[in-house]
Amino acid sequence: MLGGAVLCAVFRPYMPILLLAIFGMCWVAVAVALGARRALVKERRLLAHGALALAVLMPIALFAAKSNVAETALEENGATTSEMSSASTSSTQSWAWQESAWLPHKVDHIFQRVSELRKHFAEYGESMSANSAIDSNRIPDSALGVLMYLPRALQIGLFAPFPVTWQQRVSAPRLVGALETSVWYLFFPGVLLLAWRRPSRALLFGGCFAAILLVILSYINPNVGTLYRQRFGVWMFVLLAGAVGWMSLLSPGLRRIAETRSDLADASKAALGKTDDYPGGGIESMVAAGSLVLIITLVCFLGFTARDLLLIREFGATSMMDGYFFAAMLPTFLIACVSMPMADALMRTFVESKIGQGLKQAEGIVRAVLWYGCLGMLGLSLLLYVCAEPLVRMGMSGRSADAVHSAVTMFRCFLPLLFLSVWTVVGNAVLSGLQRFRTVALTQLVVPVLAVGAIVIWPSTYGPYPAIFGMVAGALLHSLLIVWRLSRLGFVLWPRPSAFRQLPASVMRSYRRLALAALVGSAAIPIGYVIAGLVPGDGGVSAWALASKLITLFSSLASAAVAFVVLPHFSRLVRHHVELLRNDMRLLLVVGNAAGGVGTVMLGLFAVPIASALFSHGNTDERHILMFADILRIGALQLPVAITYTVMIKIAGVVGTSLRALAGSAIALLTNAVLAFVLVHYIGILGLAVASLVAMVSATLLLSTITRKACGLHMRDVAVLCISWIAWAGITLASNADWVHSVVS
User: Fold this and answer.
1) Containing structural domain, residue 432
2) Exposure class string for 5-41: b at 16+ Cβ within 10 A, else e
3) Torsion sign across C-alpha atoms 417, 422, 424, 429
4) Percentages (nearest 5) of helix, strand, coil residues in the chain
5) Domain match, 273 and 303 both
6) Is residue 146 part of a domain?
7) Would 92 be classed as within a structural domain?
8) Same domain, yes or no, for 160 and 308?
9) Angle between the 578-605 and 715-735 helix axes, to the nearest 10 degrees?
10) pLDDT tens for each residue of 562-605
11) Contact, 394 vs 530, CB < 8 A?
12) Do 117 and 55 share a structural domain?
């Protein structure tokens, strides 16, 4: 404590004085409360510790008080004495303190000093054209005025910046502050829950200390930007209390879920007559591994988003960038519908073979899959290289010949990703089956790191090509890391033609169904790009590409977590623990739906600020910024639905309902294509977002209905999911009432 107080005195000379005053008030309040309860003797150690803290703070605070606190605080913000005197405005020039006769002179002088601090900070902020001040024109001139303003100061200290300002004068720092404040808004009700459900003396006095400090800080400095930094330490206490409060509300339900799952596991083991049938960790290890994968995969996706934003800022929403996004989309689409199903089809067979017959038998199956995958992708890459021009021309029909030629060249540069994807997909499936989840998540980071690094290092005269070469180099390094890590585990990841005899027919049959389902489901992506390319004007493809990437971020995270963590877990349950699988499936849908709903509200609320902050300093005009924001708002409505769809279609491969998943994907594709072609003629690019929303909802409803029995769902579960989707959409639209009114009118 002594070291912290000394640091405060050196870097923030006014803080020891504040801490001494706040600790003193809290100590007196504790002493009075204990005296009222006649517990002074019993709690004498508590009072002694508090007195010791005051004794440590007092000399340091007295030393700091010898300096002019107001001048020191202002100089920390770059103000000199001459600036202080010249910063007075018309609203503060006539300000003069009025002494209160009913207060002792020394107490009244303290009120005067803090009001002078507020006046100086308000004047300095106005002289520096600070745009984040709140109530800077309100400077109380008496002790009574100060006391009357304190509730407002606490409100500002707790909740500023307020929601009405989140979309004003948008910049990246202000957007980050607004996002963090919105998260705080979610946690604050938890503080009230904790005070109601689990009141304690520690919470009471900790809350009093935090409230007093926030009141003093927010009263002294009306600049929210400065207050935001100063209150961050206090926020940690309040956020922790809010998290504990929410957990106190959720813990009974979580405890019942854990007990139900434990009962199901015991019943399943008893029915099998075994006590060690279930290999590997349970739901706890799955949640821990899934959280790690989600965090690292989120960082990876943010890296890809940063790559695209750097390019957009540098080159704008031009025909060249339209060509780049279209060229990048085709390999990504093929990887999703050709390579990714290999992992889903392989997972169950690999896990069962490893458990039942040993790792060497499972290795033979993997090497056979790798052989067929490499051979198929190599042939597909050569075919696409030859047919690149007609494919790209079909999607870039409204662009110039130079733009089409540039897009063809970029598309051919992307093609090595197809061949390398086989190694990464199959290798990640093996690592997941061996429960090496951290390796799966960490190794993928090399791809965005090299892509962003190439953009930063290479000059802009090379256009988007550094990003492409960085992607290819990252994919190659990713593959090599996976092969090396598996070799350390005694597993050879290398294609072997002679291993085809070990490949079960069930793997190929499941792969064909899943690949067809993925092809039908992912076909909406190239269709959307083609339709966006038909809209007159440059930049439509770029706006649609970036907005759709942000929208699919949540569903992509869910897909990664399911593919890397949940599928191995469910593959171990599917044979003998069916009831346990259904219980975990239901829990996974609830959690995914809640996460998607929060994402819907956040994206809908911050659509314009996100668009403005991302593109305000680039070569993108206002029309494309507003188009991006509108697509983001509409697309955000499908997040909880898309996560449910992603989870169910992944699980379909495990529980053996691939054909039903194919039917759901076909419905989504047909609905999306028809609506997109119709709506794009009336509302332009926004028609794609509306069509995608309607198609996703209809396909998920159909898929939930026809696969609910295999997935362990009842009709009431489907009904609850639908009600929650409507509720999240209603909250999002209500928070964007002005935009909804402008669209309708």
Assistant:
1) 278-744
2) beebbeebbbbbbbbbbbbbebbeebbeebeeeeeee
3) positive
4) 80, 0, 20
5) no
6) yes
7) no
8) no
9) 10
10) 655 566 666 666 555 656 666 777 777 777 788 788 888 887 77
11) yes
12) no
